[in-house]
Amino acid sequence: MQHTGVLETPSNESGSDSRPLAIEDVWRGIENQQFLPHFQPKVSLRGMELKGMEALIRWQHPQRGLLTAGSFLPLITDNFLFDDLAFVMLERSVGQCRRWLDDGLQVPVSVNLTPDLLRDGRLTGRIQATMARAAVPAEYITIEVAEAAVAQKSDAILETLLALRVAGFGVAVDDYGTGRCDREQLERIPASELKIDRMMLAGAARDAALKAQLQASVELARDLNFTAVAEGIETREEWDLVNELGCDMAQGWFIAHAMPGEDLADWLLAWNADPFL
Question: Which of 100, 208, 215, 229 is at a distance of 20 to 30 A from 137, taking alpha carbons?
Answer without folding.
Answer: 229
